[in-house]
């Protein structure tokens, strides 16, 4: 089913109620973009020692509206950002450019905005990846999403969504596949993956699906912008014993690093400099314990050979 048609269906499914007029009301969550920008505006105001009323008086806006904007509930517009920059006396061109660009991004739409908010953090993750120049990821349960074939991804979604409506699972699959296609087409993006050896042996979707998936891994491993390493069982406990994560490095003018940590409930984004640096150190330890790319290809080939027998 086409993505747009699925999205229309999903908006009906996630409707949170009907008014007396019979019209369905849709509650959209604040995007990561809006929350990110709002937090930076609040921090900038507080560092200057200004209150919301101070900024509201300068910008000729209601203080409660600015409060919602700083919380990311109401996306900041470019004039509002420029007012903050002026009243807070921010003259650094790089910082000004970054905030104005982010204000534009909060209101621009991309292909991901066709999908409804019940997909949760996946939408914000896709937006981050669309601005990324490098993604480093570790996975210990399944093949990373950036490398999954359609059949493999469908099997993963079905297994995780045992109590989820089929329409929702179809939307998840459509979003994941569009995400993967665009990541593969992005020539500026480098992807560096470490995956636990166990993901190669886990028969997700059955033998044929797994053989196709391993073939895809071997094909992608030869791409100049892709590095695939396998963390062998012999390496012992992984440096990231808590589970999977992605490290996303963004292009200018955005903040340089964000970590994405999935969970059964949804996921969280880690943006604190100290926390991101800690996870980067974890990834370096994983790389040092993993097989080199050529050795990893040999192991993937060997697992595939045994499946074919």
* Largest sheet composition: 6 strands, mixed
Structural class: alpha/beta
**Overall pLDDT:** 82
Number of helices: 13
> Count the strands?
6
What's the number of domains? 2
Binned, the helix content reads: 40-55%
CATH architecture of the largest domain: 2-Layer Sandwich
- CATH class identity of the largest domain: Alpha Beta
Strand order of the largest sheet: 3-2-1-4-5-6
Helix and strand sequence: HHHHHHHEHHEHHEEEEHH
Separation of the first and last Cα atoms: 35 Å
Strand content: 5-15%
**For the CA atoms, what is the radius of gyration?**
22 Å
The unreliable regions are: 1-29
Shape: elongated
Please render the helix and strand layout as text:
Blueprint lengths: L2 H11 L18 H17 L3 H8 L3 H8 L7 H10 L5 H15 L13 H10 L1 E8 L10 H11 L5 H20 L4 E7 L1 H4 L5 H15 L4 E6 L13 E6 L6 E6 L4 E4 L2 H17 L3 H16 L1
Parallel strand pairs: 1-2, 2-3
Antiparallel strand pairs: 1-4, 4-5, 5-6
């Amino acid at each position: 089913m086409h993505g747009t048609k699925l999205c229309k269906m999903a908006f009906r499914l996630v409707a949170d109620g009907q008014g007396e007029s019979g019209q369905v009301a849709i509650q959209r969550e604040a995007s990561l973009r809006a929350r990110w920008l709002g937090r930076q505006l609040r921090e900038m105001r507080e560092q200057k020692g200004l209150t919301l009323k101070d900024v509201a008086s300068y910008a000729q806006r209601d203080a409660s509206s600015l409060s919602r904007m700083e919380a990311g509930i109401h996306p900041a517009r470019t004039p509002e950002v420029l007012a903050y920059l002026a009243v807070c006396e921010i003259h650094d061109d790089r910082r000004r450019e970054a905030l104005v660009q982010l204000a534009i991004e909060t209101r621009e739409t991309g292909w991901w905005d066709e999908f409804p908010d019940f997909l949760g953090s996946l939408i914000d993750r896709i937006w981050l990846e669309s601005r990324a120049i490098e993604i480093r990821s570790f996975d210990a349960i399944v093949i990373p999403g950036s490398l999954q074939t359609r059949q493999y991804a469908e099997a993963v979604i079905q297994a995780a969504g045992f109590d989820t409506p089929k329409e929702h699972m179809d939307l998840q699959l459509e979003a994941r596949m569009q995400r993967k296609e665009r990541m593969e087409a992005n020539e500026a993006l480098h992807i560096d993956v470490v995956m636990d050896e166990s993901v190669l042996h886990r028969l997700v979707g059955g033998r044929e699906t797994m053989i196709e998936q391993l073939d895809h891994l071997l094909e992608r491993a030869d791409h100049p912008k892709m590095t695939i390493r396998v963390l062998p069982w012999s390496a012992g406990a992984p440096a990231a014993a808590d589970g999977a994560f992605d490290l996303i490095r963004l292009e200018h003018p955005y903040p340089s690093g964000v970590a994405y940590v999935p969970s059964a409930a949804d996921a969280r984004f880690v943006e604190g400099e100290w926390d991101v640096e800690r996870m980067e150190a974890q990834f370096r330890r994983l790389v040092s314990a993993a097989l080199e790319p050529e050795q990893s290809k040999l192991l993937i080939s060997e697992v595939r050979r045994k499946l074919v027998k």
